[in-house]
């Protein structure tokens, strides 16, 4: 339910972002169009003043200058009319021959359309209105009106592609998690179940050692209970309690040390203070550090090497746990992926153990975990937890 709500929140957030983005584009576009229109109107006002001055001047060249130089320098449609007749035009895209009836008819259609947008400016000769200057929007304004629509379409396309990509990634991660969880469950349950089957057969064949066998069966049942508890808690908010993190890691180290093959020469050494208390879930933290130490054991090739677990207080409220092994190391290109679901450098790995560890430490206990450094012969994975 929470995951669904989180997904819905992401979609609503993206939609709101698109709405804000499109509104901003429309506002910026409107401001630019308004400014261009104001600039065009100022140029036409200057033209009207220059034209009025030229026709009232005794210098014949002044009017010619306005028509030949000033008027062509403007980059928006202009029509000058005198006595209700067309006197001059510029920047009109009309396919008919200039002066033809069709041309004049098309010009008047444009004039009426421009007058709906902008009031024409008067041309005054000796205090008498002799004509008008009609003008319209620059070409760029017409093009810019479509710009927000295009940008909005691109923004929506980007959001749709992002959602589609997120869906594919999430589906891929889900598949990896489902497969990994199924295999991890089988792996976790396989050992105690096989052991129980063996004890049961032994009990049938040799009932004289019943008490000893029953003790072993009881240990395996407790192991199954712990495994069940792990999987139940990983998908929910665990109930936390005071935990001595030093004692917990010491117990895990001993547990794994006793289960390393006798033929192996892997030594697990600890540098742990007497006692440090945190607030957390013992079952899940045991699982997390068990995964980390087992991962270090698997990284040591030919079964010969050292693992050092070192706990250090780095402040009054934090403790760092370094797990250092002398294994083959993690390639640089894989360091950012080791905690992702489905990633594994092992041929038969399932890519779930370290991702679960990251979830336990960072999401459920608000700590940190990362690869501090890695090279052949020395890899350091550091976890940081909050002290109580």
Instruction: Give the SSE order as H and E letters.
Output: HHEEHEEHHEHEEHEEHEE
Name the CATH superfamily classification of the largest domain: Histidine kinase-like ATPase, C-terminal domain
Q: What is the name of the CATH architecture of the largest domain? A: 2-Layer Sandwich
Radius of gyration: 40 Å
Shape: rod-shaped
Low-confidence stretches: none
Category by helix and strand content = alpha+beta
Biggest beta-sheet profile: 5 strands, mixed
The portion of residues assigned to helices is 55-70%
How would you state the average pLDDT, rounded? 79
CATH class of the largest domain: Alpha Beta
Distance between the termini: 31 Å
What features would you describe in this structure?
- The protein is of the alpha+beta class.
- The chain folds into three domains: about 1-135, 2-Layer Sandwich (Beta-Lactamase); about 145-225; about 240-385, Histidine kinase-like ATPase, C-terminal domain (Heat Shock Protein 90, 2-Layer Sandwich), CATH 3.30.565.
- It has helices spanning about 1-55, 60-70, 100-115, 140-205, 210-235, 245-260, 280-300, 355-365, and strands at about 80, 85-90, 120-125, 130-135, 240-245, 265-270, 275-280, 305-315, 320-325, 370-375, 380-385.
- A hairpin with a 2-residue loop joins strand 8 (about 305-315) and strand 9.
- Helix 1 (about 1-55) packs antiparallel against helix 4 (about 140-205), helix 6 packs across helix 7 (about 280-300) and helix 7 crosses helix 8 (about 355-365).
- The longest helix has about 70 residues, at about 140-205.
- It is rod-shaped, with a radius of gyration of 40 Å.
- The two termini are about 30 Å apart.
